[in-house]
């Protein structure tokens, strides 16, 4: 008994723990379906079939399928941002080295998990809320790049932020071409190339 409530266990796990496990399983299934078959395959029926859960458990976690997709997008960007930030943090004090390390980590993360690039580049036209979320997360990456290049600029001008967002879009396109090239260079080489471009684009404006 805790605070007048009884916490029953099932197989040694509380109801809350089992609910959390179902949420993780549903999100994993959605991510796998997106990676294997595309966004159109991410449906309530599809994720329930993959997890062997009834739709009752899906609706216990999400009101609509778009909520699950949104959470997947947020999770992917959180992973990418964390990888970039950590790589930049341990790269030393040189902005070029920090940005190269961060962008290289971004690329390596995308190669390590096939789902990441597919999620980053999927057409979200049918999901207006998701498209807005992806844009906001791309702006976050753009601000991180600006903070690396010009740490003294705490509140960048709109034109500078627009240029950084433009740079993030360019890096994404470079990454798509890079992954499609059987004779591609290393992630580190492309990271350095992308950094040079970002520095040329943003350095004079910062």
TrEMBL record:
Gene3D superfamilies: Tetracycline Repressor, domain 2 (1.10.357.10). The keyword DNA-binding applies. GO terms for molecular function: DNA binding. Keywords: DNA-binding. It holds the Pfam family TetR_N. Residues 20-80 form the HTH tetR-type domain. Signal peptide: none annotated. It comes from the Bacteria. Residues 43-62 bind DNA. PROSITE patterns: HTH_TETR_2. SUPFAM superfamilies: Homeodomain-like (SSF46689). This is HTH tetR-type domain-containing protein. It comes from Mycobacteroides salmoniphilum.
